[in-house]
Amino acid sequence: MKIDSIQNGIVIDHLPAGSAMTVYRYLKLDECEGSVAILQNVQSGKHVRKDIIKLDGVTELDWDILGFLAPDCTVNVIRDSQIMEKRHMNLPEKLVDVIRCRNPRCITTVEPGLKHIFTLANRERAVYRCIYCESAGSRH
Ligand SMILES: [Zn+2]
Question: Are residues 84 and 43 in the same domain?
Answer without folding.
Answer: yes
